Amino acid sequence: MGKKEVNIGLIGFGTVGTGVVRLVHAYQEDLYKQTGVSIHIERILIKDPLKERPLSVQHGLLTTDPSTLLNDPNIDIVIEVMGGIEPAKTYIQKALEKGKHVVTANKDLMALYGDELLQLAARCGCDLYYEASVAGGIPILKTITDGFSSDRITKMIGIVNGTTNYILTKMMREAVSFEEALKEAQRLGYAEQDPTSDVDGLDAARKMAILASLGFHTGINVDDVSCKGIGGITVEDLNFAKQLGYTMKLVGIAKRDEWGIEVSVEPTLVKDTHPLAAVNDVFNAVYVYGEAVGETMFYGPGAGELPTATAVLSDLVSVVKNIQLGVTGKHMPLSYSEKVLKGKETIYAKFFLRLIVQDECGVLAKIAEWMAEEEISLEKVFQKPYIGDQSQAELILVTHFASKKSIEHVLDLLKQSDFIKEVKSCYRVEG
Amino acid sequence: MGKKEVNIGLIGFGTVGTGVVRLVHAYQEDLYKQTGVSIHIERILIKDPLKERPLSVQHGLLTTDPSTLLNDPNIDIVIEVMGGIEPAKTYIQKALEKGKHVVTANKDLMALYGDELLQLAARCGCDLYYEASVAGGIPILKTITDGFSSDRITKMIGIVNGTTNYILTKMMREAVSFEEALKEAQRLGYAEQDPTSDVDGLDAARKMAILASLGFHTGINVDDVSCKGIGGITVEDLNFAKQLGYTMKLVGIAKRDEWGIEVSVEPTLVKDTHPLAAVNDVFNAVYVYGEAVGETMFYGPGAGELPTATAVLSDLVSVVKNIQLGVTGKHMPLSYSEKVLKGKETIYAKFFLRLIVQDECGVLAKIAEWMAEEEISLEKVFQKPYIGDQSQAELILVTHFASKKSIEHVLDLLKQSDFIKEVKSCYRVEG
Lengths: 431, 431
Prior knowledge:
Two copies of one chain form a homodimer. By secondary structure, the first copy, chain A, is of the alpha/beta class. Chain A has helices at residues 15-26, 28-35, 66-70, 88-97, 107-124, 140-147, 162-174, 178-187, 196-199, 202-216, 235-243, 305-325, 363-373, 404-416; strands at residues 5-11, 38-45, 62-63, 77-80, 101-104, 128-129, 153-159, 226-227, 246-257, 260-271, 283-290, 294-301, 348-358, 378-385, 392-399, 402-403, 420-430.
């Protein structure tokens, strides 16, 4: 029980970094009461010394030289909020090797090298915490590691990307196109000028890799996550979904069963009565199903300066408490289960299909026959004349549980068939 | 890093106790991987040795003599799931004094004597955890102490009693009376034969006292919670609420601002767009507003054998980890803020009023005048002929923010007035 002051080296001084500095100052007294230690920001590593910043800090605090921060023996904890793989990875490794604890918000890095870095931290006797990397303001990593330590999580469904959730909410509510909704999201600062990693689902895939690793105690890498974005979703899809009682969400699903683990991110129709269906705008939520506890859900802001900064600071408080008790490097959530990924033949889901078909006798029979051969049965069928062409019909099918392999096989047959004009869409269905 | 085995003494072998024994057996291997220790149930204290139990345990495990458990030096951790104040309190005190760590699910006890017992635990160098005492399957206490350690919680709203939430959900959905809904809840085992403590809000008040103490770092006692039950709610109230876009919930509210702290439990009209409005049936949820993080919500099962048992076991895992690291008795969430409770003049809320009035000129003007004198302005006014009597009208008012003192004063004036036939109801409004 030694220290009276803990010194922080901050790497990165963008949105989250600014939030961290603001909160450390605003909550100085509360933090002291919780930890018995004053928290002091000793140095901030920046790239561009000429850049104008929303927050002015004491002269001499800023540096562009990483070694003045990483080699400073006074610095106990490094907070990395610069993002990206390199040089962040090298900085974190060096910090750990020098015996400095690390708090990071870096999902790119943790989704790719989480296991490696956690093991390095454990070897160095250092803490490495990363609550802010998933669902900003929701303390979901702590909840999974501590709250669910006594249960077996079998399923997690996450709305973990605020940008796409905003776009889909707007498309559902106002029946505007994807392009229009994206433009509005950019105007409001919810989407970046290059929105690719959000829209394509990659950002969500990184977060799901982190959640799956923790929840299933194994090293799931972002490359293990099958991923599909929201770019192709049309207002027509959403209208049909609404009529059938579904809400479109970009969800990440991580499941484990006797065959292994599956992790995916894809546009999914969520039943209106499912708690995730009401998670709108830029909000995030993670639904966790535990074998013993059943259904739970954790909801909150997924990004933003202060929400993300609180996540960073809650990790900081944990590290400081560990320092005071002399138990750093002991709480790493290291993997202990073998990674067995499922193939398409054991990934089961319900599916929504929208087809344009020749409006003639026997078409539905043929489709049903192909489905039956793959042991797919139908939960809902809905047909109406196709507005584009009177001789054609629009057919909506919702299946019961089917394997991904079976549904892909049927989709191939449909696409090759003469009497199917077009496979407009195929989405997973949840709830 | 010493022990290979941790021995448990279980006090109480009802629903939750049975769940604990089941899970300790079912998850033996997972628990070992998490903690490096085998967890062994050494002794179970019961009241009635002749009672038939759903789970049969090894001969010699059961005892009716508390001293054989409390004085057994082999027992490291006591799990108390018998409930009630005495003898539970004495057992817990004795266990702590003997250096045994305690995990309890006892909300009655923690709501009344939480501060005292936590201080005793800290003095004895022992852990005292009580996650299962609030909202069974939701790890809300860990979330507040760890996840929000870096933020200033200003408001918590909890649906923390499953019985009343089931009754209100049924009344809203099916327009059945309170009595009918209660009977159905009893038939399904959601309500006890004597449902008083649920229906009157006392159970929820206990949980709000625990939440407020943790969230505001001060000792809030159940006696500090103002409490009103759901017994008087009518189907008519619910119909009007629905028309105006509200859902009736029994909510606990804990707020703090520059004037102090308020904690209450009362039937409240929650706006349909608020995340709590969608929390139905026996589910629980706690909405937490942090100054920096903003809106968050935590949702899950509030009771039941296995959900509650997982909460107990997650505490057990925490204690075992602390034992292994030699840091027991260091994580007690002790109070450090002064308790300042607000008076009615600084408790502000919106209110919904339903009145039966003489249908004559000047009535609304008079009511509006009384309101104006108390600086209460109206957000919504809705009038319709009263079915019971043609010369009377039914008047629904929703106010803007008003102090509890002001609204009570206006209610007094209304009750004394000749042209107000009846004040049918007055509810708090949230969101």
